[in-house]
Amino acid sequence: MFKVAICDDEMTSLMINQALTEQVLSDNNIEYEIKTFDNMEKMIEVLSKEGEEFDLLLSDILAVGMNGIEAAEELRRLGEKIPIVFISSTADYALDGYRVNALRYLQKPVQIDILKEAIMEAYGNRKSRKEHLSFQVGDRFYKINFDDIIYLESSMRDTEVVTKNERIVVHNKFSDMEKKLPESRFCRCHRSYIINLSEVKDIARYRFLTKSGEEIPISQIQYQEIKNAYIKFGE
After folding, report:
1. Which residues pair with 105 in a beta bridge?
2. What is the DSSP letter of 51?
3. Alpha carbon 17 to its chain's center
4. How many helices (H) and strands (E) does the chain have?
5. pLDDT in tens, 153-168
6. Is the pTM of this model over 0.70?
7. Distances from the Cα of 91 to the Cαs of 6, 103, 223, in angstroms?
């Protein structure tokens, strides 16, 4: 299911963009769900909610109160990485779109072939974008790509997610975090560690060495089993 959010405080534009999006997705035999918003604050509330997985946001820029750029900045601050396509009657904010890593910037009235290019680009990138670990810390919602995770470490009642750029303390049980990870690439090598096998540089007796230079312990009891899993992963 390809989920699209459309936000515009002008009802006519909202309906037009919805109709064009439905036509593009139907013509390409893509199963979809569209949710519309006429308010930026409400859109942010829904898209940043844990468990809500949207694949594309089509947003106007000019709006009463919070504008589209400000809304996109808030989504990014909250950790939302959804592809954003701005559809606006003015090009004045086009350069601002780079600040929020916008996918495209389209001018009204939007041409359906140009809209189709933007939608299909987001659809094509959907698989890689969904390969992530999702969790919430305070008011910030994280979506960390599996490729960016080195390992997870149990810390009392918390879990530390160690990425290539930062360490994030998550107030979730270690076992609950483990369930969110694919067994095909993540291995619980110790009671307190889950390692991303693609980030392993080498293995020695009772430890992994990561590409970043950290040593991760391996359970002595499960050493042979874990070693075999690592060898199989690299084949």
Report:
1. 86
2. T
3. 24
4. 7, 15
5. 998 889 999 999 999 9
6. no
7. 19, 15, 60
